[in-house]
Design a protein that fits this description.
The chain is an alpha/beta fold. It folds into 2 domains: 229 residues, Spore Coat Polysaccharide Biosynthesis Protein SpsA, Chain A (Alpha-Beta Complex); 40 residues, no CATH class. Helix content is 32%, strand content 21%. 29% of the residues are buried.
């Protein structure tokens, strides 16, 4: 590796040997059941293509990405293949069953399909279809130098830890309760009490793609205790490996609830399907 004058301004250039030794296998975690969204979020229309396909297409034109693996819901593999198989096959995607309970099961299953010659493994949430090419380049470039790299945003809001239990947050209305019954109970406002205000200094909100040296991520998932894992970097941290954080971006939103999808459509300038001509909908 060598540096030229561009490195003095924060950019690093790489010779051909370094470029050729950087081979990424991408895992897309798509095994969730979309409980908070209320329906199949990966199949939602996003500019005439399913949201899942949009996420895949973020990486299909990148020379560094040599293979793509989608970990699908194991209980609906046939339905998943019927719905997305042809489009994913066009991009050379391998579909594997994900986990049934925890996210770590999904990634561990997908690791079995990673080619042996992959030097790095990237993990991306299938529900993040708006990640920019600049962010992906930023993470990939840092991963050439560091064993583990993740994008994240500085936390701007005040953070508070609240009680686990909720309490009623409005006065009782015995007349309405008697008329509406269970519906009235469900509509009552509830709240939780503040237990502490958390210092947000040096706190970040983590995103994907997260990129790791292949042997580092494999060793991380070979650990016996994988409980309490919310992202892949946390497993790598348990081994004592340093994780580098690079700048994420606001548009790299994960679709969790319907409002997130509406926000992403606005960010990308994409109309909802009912706002487009019928022949332009998939």
């Amino acid at each position: 590796m060598y540096c030229n004058s561009a490195a003095l301004s924060g950019r690093v250039t790489f010779n051909r040997w370094t470029m050729e030794s950087f081979s990424v296998s991408l895992i897309l975690a798509a095994a969730g059941n979309s409980t908070r969204f209320g329906s199949d979020k990966l199949g939602q229309d996003l500019g005439g293509r399913p949201l899942l396909l949009r996420s895949v297409e973020l990486f299909t034109k990148r020379d560094e990405v040599r293979s793509i693996i989608v970990a699908a819901p194991p209980e609906n593999m046939t339905e998943f293949r019927d719905r997305f198989g042809a489009q994913l096959s066009f991009h050379g995607v391998t579909i594997v069953p994900g986990g049934t309970i925890d996210r770590w099961e999904t990634i561990r299953n997908a690791l079995k399909a990673v080619p042996a010659d992959a030097t790095h493994i990237a993990v991306h949430d299938a529900a993040r279809p708006a990640t920019s090419d600049d962010l992906i380049s930023r993470v990939f470039e840092a991963a050439r130098l560091h064993d583990a790299v993740i994008p994240a945003l500085n936390v701007a809001d005040t953070l508070k830890r609240v009680s686990e239990e909720s309490v009623e947050a409005q006065q009782e209305d015995s007349i309405a309760d008697s008329i509406l019954g269970e519906d009235a109970e469900m509509s009552k406002a509830k709240g939780r009490f503040v237990q502490a205000t958390v210092d947000r200094s040096n706190l970040v909100s983590v995103q994907t793609p997260q990129v790791f040296k292949a042997d580092v991520l494999r060793r991380a998932y070979a650990q016996t205790d994988l409980s309490g894992v919310t992202d892949d970097a946390s497993l790598v941290e348990r081994m004592g490996t340093k994780v580098l954080v690079v700048d994420g971006e606001l548009r790299n939103l994960k679709v969790t609830v319907p409002e997130d999808l509406r926000t992403i459509r606005l960010l990308l300038g994409i109309a909802a399907p009912e706002g487009r001509a019928v022949h332009k909908r998939f």
